[in-house]
Design a protein that fits this description.
Helix 6 crosses helix 9 and helix 11 packs across helix 12. Strand 1, helix 1 and strand 2 form a beta-alpha-beta unit. An 8-stranded parallel sheet has the order 9-6-3-2-1-12-11-10. A 4-stranded antiparallel sheet has the order 5-4-7-8, with no helix packed on it. The chain has about 525 residues and is α/β, with parallel strands linked by helices. It is globular, with a radius of gyration of 23 Å.
Amino acid sequence: MRQVISDRSSGILLHVSSLPGSHGVGDIGQSFDFIDFLASAGQSYWQILPLNPTSPIFGNSPYMSFSAFAGNPLFINPDMLHEQGLLNKKDTDGPEFSPYVLEFDRVIPWKRNLLQKAWSRFQAQPDKSDFDAFCNEHDWLLDHALFMALKDKYDNSPWYTWPEEIRCAKKKNLLVAAAAMADEVDYYRFEQYLFFRQWQQLHDHAARKGVRIIGDLPIYVGMDSVDVWANQGIFELDKRTRRPSRVAGVPPDYFSKTGQLWGNPLYRWNTRKATVKNQLYTWWANRFANMFSMVDVLRIDHFRGFESYWSIPGRDKTAENGVWKKGPGVKFFLEMKKRLGALPVIAEDLGYITPEVVALRDKLGYPGMKILLFAFDGASDNAYLPFNYTENCIVYTGTHDNDTAVGWFLDPEVPRSSKLQLKRTANSPNEDIATVHHDIIYLALSSTARLAILPMQDILGFGNDCRMNKPATSGGNWNWRCAPQYLTDQLAASLKDQASFFGRLPSRLDPDAGPVTK
């Protein structure tokens, strides 16, 4: 198999929403500036979280969405709409937002109002040929737009509570509903038109700068999503209630006596019906194709679910009564390769990983993930210690779900022995908190891992007040923003120097050259 990451390199983990800017949320416009920062800093990769629409209903999590195909309209840049003539300059001069926290309750209605204004002006334009072409290019778009229009009509209630003639999602019924709600449907198609056209400009800009974008794909989709509503036959649903008959999660372990009940409907991987399996594989092929039109490399969240997955009865309140079932395995990925070509995939192989999962990952040639914050338990054979890595892996100081390096070091529940082990491994035999993030970055960059990804919070030495997400909590997640004063020329120069020193500088750059300019 061809290597996903071919050169020794480095990159930064920072979600689009966390980018600095004056519109309350990081968006595609600010992403151009960040790509330029990455290029000047000698970085080869930008890793982001899922780009799908978020909702307060799901706690604004990018890992729970109404659609696995659509883009987040919050990321549409108002200034680019002004350049298109769809907004006036005074429209973009919105209220003052916090540069440190994403205020979802203020930003969401403000952005929605701007997009409604842009839609009104767009409708008055005589030439809509590009919009029409976009709508014809994307088979998923009509289902998504109708689903969102129906969500509005039914006060955001879940689709499985809608009237039966709509809930059943039969083609003829949907065409009637779409015709009756044509204006509302076209608005939601317009949102996606704006998002994808802006993102394509950004993706092209990143390619010119030599920066590759790493996207993120959750293996499961939300039950209340257009993906399940419009494709009910490929999920394990009760035929009468259309609720999940089996749901996803993970079994009980040391950390949770009852396991984790995620509640996502499971795919019908083991169906004997050839038509259903073909529909399922086609849906996945379309999902991959859509993602690879936006990003260059794709991290698959919960990769182990393709080897085997925990199947829980749909009505259970805990994950205790689940059973392991075989996933589609290597045959699935070979079929995807047959349909789409080689898939540049990173396997998220964290948690309880069996030899069979490792064998699947290695047979496909996909790099796995090494998290340095998991390394310091006192055992010299810990797989996350940098001297135990194979070359074909991606090292992270931490992820969006973990403490920051400084937050971890300050946590009183982390044993002092673990903190001292980190220091000793980095040849920094002191307990100085000020150097912790430098120590762990040193370990990542100096490791044999082909790619090192650094969360921006660790680069800046921030504590847990700046972490992105704390799993199993509600509220206060996904809202950290990197204020503009932190992305300096001095920081870019420091990152470039480290990339050069550890042999991770892109081949397009000479170590003695100045910053890459537009």
